[in-house]
Hints:
Layout: H1 2-12, H2 20-34, H3 55-58, H4 60-82, H5 86-107
Helix pairs in contact: 1-2, 1-5, 2-4, 4-5
The structure holds ascorbic acid (ASC).
Amino acid sequence: MGNHFTRIGAMANGRVPFDAAVAASSANVVETLSKLPWEGFGPSTDKGDTRAKPEIWTEKAKFDEAAKTMQAEVAKLNQAAKTGSLDAVKAAFGGAAQSCKACHDAYRSN
Ligand code: ASC
């Protein structure tokens, strides 16, 4: 997810030239992947040596809300990327990046 998201970010931030097809392909991958992690945080998955913080399970409703927000922001980014417009991608990128970061800051240890 991070790999493809970073590719879009590089274009949104002007670090690499905008390639509409690459942005659309990566945004599509990110939207698909955004639906997948949640089964891994279900009941009795709070075990093992991971960077997942206990709050994922003790604040499950908040975690689920953050997960939903991220999926909504990523879906918007995908819609934006489908238009082929760099301005649309730029407009949607910040919210998506913020939604990734919010969850990582709260629920992932470094
Ligand atoms: C990435 C990545 C994230 C997000 C986040 C955005 O490329 O791997 O987790 O962007 O850093 O702020």
